[in-house]
Amino acid sequence: MTFKTLDDLGDVTGKRALVRVDLNVPMADLKVTDDTRLRSTLPTVTELADRGAIVLLLAHFGRPKGAQRPDMSLSLVTKAYEDVLGRPVRFVGDCQGENAAANVADMQPGDIAILENTRFHGGEEKNDPELARAIAALGDFYVNDAFSAAHRAHSSTEAIAHILPAYAGRAMEAELKALQKALGEPERPVAAVVGGAKVSTKLEVLRHLVTKVDHLIIGGGMANTFLAARGVAVGKSLCEHDLTGTAVEILDAAERANCTVHLPYDVVVAKEFAANPPSLRTVNVHEVAEDEMILDVGPAAVEALADAIKTCRTLVWNGPLGAFETVPFDAATVALAQTAAALTQSGSLVSVAGGGDTVAALNHAGVADDFTFVSTAGGAFLEWMEGKELPGVKALETA
């Protein structure tokens, strides 16, 4: 994959940069509750502004479905963004048309503006070329810095990249390079940790990974379905019994591909899902009682998983091993994450993680900063793990 970056831009003084970013941040009582996505835009936005470009930010906010929704206006985010950026930020009440053009006409080199929610236009999610042309009329070149929106073929992520000279922003560039290292051209052996509640949400991920990695570590509620497929009684654990046949197919595919699938052989169980329940115990996976549920991977299995990762050069991680939000069912996720972080810091492992629960789990373990790369993208990261082509990325590729 080859794509142009900000390094390929010449003199941009006075030129208008249309920069697609992700400002779809969580809010409560009209205040941003997590500014991670805002901060991720800073390297690209500050560089372009410092180089004299007029920076016009394109983003969506919520799901207004083409309606003008005041509660989904990006004006609500502008002050918070200004605070994070540490510079004045103008708000423009549309992302296309005469009013928007008039609003940006007097902007000077280095000025920054947020344009109104692209999804206020029904054509955005339809990848309407007319809307893309109308947005493009405001700029001289296009920068996509929103990997988290790159799995959608929308006017502001795909169509516009065919109209204006298109470049990857710094966050997009870092993401694509990390993903290339993880599954594109990885150093082997490669391990993947895939956790979470349901196999049904990650079927395509698992099918793709068994052809790409040497070790597949399955945790969370998903592991219960695979254990059941192998004839293990899992009590009243979360388990998709109707998918055991599919699990067998994935296990067979892994065997054909010489991919070792790791399932827990000791587990932490309880009769109720609560913090430190009195019924808590650690047992061999074949000793789960009918009235017990599996809530975490056991310590012996975690030690074996750590030993497997120590033999690897690359790790991809998506999803927790247990119900990590509740103590003590965070133990396996924390322990294995800390092992991966230590190996990364020692220089023996390239570790790439992504997905909402994964980021939360790694933050909980205190190791998010110690991984090679942690992606905040949810759907885009999963689709990449499924081996799908991402329209917003494909549109940036050069011949």
Automatic annotation (TrEMBL):
ATP binds at residues 202, 325, 355-358. The keyword Nucleotide-binding applies. Gene3D superfamilies: Phosphoglycerate kinase, N-terminal domain. Pfam families: PGK (PF00162). Substrate binds at residues 22-24, 37, 60-63, 119, 152. It comes from the Bacteria. It catalyses: (2R)-3-phosphoglycerate + ATP = (2R)-3-phospho-glyceroyl phosphate + ADP. GO terms for molecular function: ADP binding; ATP binding; phosphoglycerate kinase activity. Pathway: Carbohydrate degradation; glycolysis; pyruvate from D-glyceraldehyde 3-phosphate: step 2/5. Keywords: ATP-binding, Cytoplasm, Glycolysis, Kinase, Nucleotide-binding, Transferase. Monomer. This is Phosphoglycerate kinase. It comes from Allosphingosinicella deserti. The gene is pgk.
